[in-house]
Design brief:
This protein is of the alpha/beta class and about 280 residues long. Helices cover about 20% and strands about 30% of the residues. The strands form 3 sheets. A 7-stranded mixed β-sheet has the order 8-5-4-3-2-1-18. It has a 7-stranded mixed β-sheet with strand order 9-10-13-14-15-16-17, with helices on one face. A 4-stranded antiparallel β-sheet has the order 7-6-11-12, with no helix packed on it. The longest helix has 13 residues. The chain starts with a strand and ends with a strand. It binds fe (ii) ion (2 copies). One fe (ii) ion binds next to helix 2.
Length: about 280
């Protein structure tokens, strides 16, 4: 299946015309059969950037949500107002209350809109814990088992406990990745890779029974990873001979520079306007 990905929202811009950057992520996915939107950014850039890049949000067959953080879900109302009623795929935990806490300060980082409000704009939520085929050759991973010993999660991410008072580490079970079965092999599109990139790679191969990953694109969260986790992730990228790595968002510039130094031409920045074809 021929596939084209275009980054619509990201922290930086990669084209010199009419687009804006924001902390967040969104990716437009075109296939032989249908087009889709994976994540929506915070909501500042999704409409402007889709117009500038000529990616018609009225033509998407479904929206997929990688996880319930504000920087991936905040653009949902804007997209729904353009698209009208549409299926929205994700994990049941996307509506959890979430808090970022570091250096003595806290901040709400959960989805900034209520389910009822989004449904009033036409969202038809399809929330599942397992892998879902969203369309021909297009899969949302479902919960990714946390197997790798090197991937410890991000301690600054917390969620409100059931008693409504205490914070506890956020398991981010809702962290899902998009898997496209393209002509050149699997393409994995990450939101923030909170499940761990090694875990995501291994799970995608196991579940699809494919051997070849052509490309990975999106937020790797390697900007928050230990040196050990970073090194082990590089080893896995080499082991599976992944041909294209387009990093975005929570990768951060220092880790992106290190990846470029190691991967050379296989590396690219997944900035607003970056594309990948297969
Ligand atoms: Fe993020
Ligand atoms: Fe996130």
């Amino acid at each position: 299946m021929k596939t084209k990905l275009t980054i619509l929202c990201e922290n930086s811009v990669g084209v010199p015309f009419g687009v804006i950057g924001e902390h967040g992520f969104a990716c437009y996915v075109e296939t032989d059969n249908r087009n889709y939107l994976f994540d929506t950014g915070q909501g500042f850039g999704i409409i402007q950037n889709s117009l500038a890049l000529k990616k018609d949000l009225r033509e998407i067959a479904a929206i997929m949500i990688s996880h319930g953080h504000y920087d991936h879900t905040g653009g949902l109302p804007a997209v729904l107002q353009v698209r009208g009623p549409v299926d929205v795929y994700g994990h049941p935990d996307i509506f959890m209350d979430r808090i970022w806490s570091a250096e003595g300060s806290t901040r709400y980082i959960g989805i900034p809109h209520s389910r009822r409000y989004l449904e009033s704009l036409g969202a038809r939520f399809r929330l599942e814990t397992g892998m879902v085929a969203v369309g021909p050759g297009v899969f949302l991973s479902g919960e990714v088992p946390r197997v790798s010993a090197f991937e410890k999660g991000d301690a600054k991410m917390t969620a409100v406990a059931d008693d409504g008072e205490k914070f506890h580490p956020d398991p981010l079970k809702d962290d899902l990745s998009l898997i496209v079965d393209s002509d050149k092999g699997l393409i994995i599109v990450l939101g923030c890779a909170h499940a761990g990139l090694i875990n995501i790679i291994e799970y995608a191969l196991k579940k699809t029974r494919q051997k070849k990953i052509f490309a990975i694109i999106g937020g790797t969260h390697l900007g928050f990873a230990s040196d050990e986790q970073f090194d082990e992730t590089l080893k896995v990228i080499e082991r599976y001979n992944i041909e294209r790595i387009g990093v975005s968002h929570c990768t951060g510039l220092p880790r992106a520079s290190m990846l470029h130094a190691k991967l050379k031409d296989r590396f690219f920045f997944g900035s607003v306007g970056s594309t990948l074809e297969a």
